[in-house]
Predict the structure.
Amino acid sequence: EKEAVALKEELSEITEVEIFKCDVSDSLQVKELFSNISQKLGNVNVLVNNAGVADQVLFTDITDEMWQRMININLSSAFYCSREALKNMINEKNGVIINIASMWGEVGASMEVHYSTAKAGLIGMTKALAKEVGPSNIRVNCVSPGVIDTDMNSHLSESTTAFTVVEPESIPT
């Protein structure tokens, strides 16, 4: 909350800023969020789906709860937010949705099967949605970064983040 308030103060010098709090993995809270945004600021023209969590755990140790949490935060949240934003974007025939995926959604990561799966789903959703809403002048794009120095990755050492991507066809069978 402190960081949000500090950022609001900084950005308020150049534009209108409001702070909204929401669990984006909860579709009802997302509906309420977009209603509040619309009342205070108008319709959303640009949406960046950036919510994300990660866990490093063996596939056989992933519980149902861990799986569902990963899918809800990394994939379902983007679905819920995009669905709400698109209601007005389609009517206005204008808008941009940017989904933040991960390179692991493209190539997979050992001990992060549930994370890789959620991000791969986000990439697939981006491609399909772009085709569906493109004729309405709405752009849907996805960014798949590698390891970024964020709070989520703060526990990783520098040697851990120096990954080598191995393409599946180069793995001996």
In short: Helices lie at 2-11, 27-41, 64-92, 103-107, 113-133, 158-161. The chain has a mean pLDDT of 90. The CA atoms of residues 5 and 74 lie 25 Å apart.
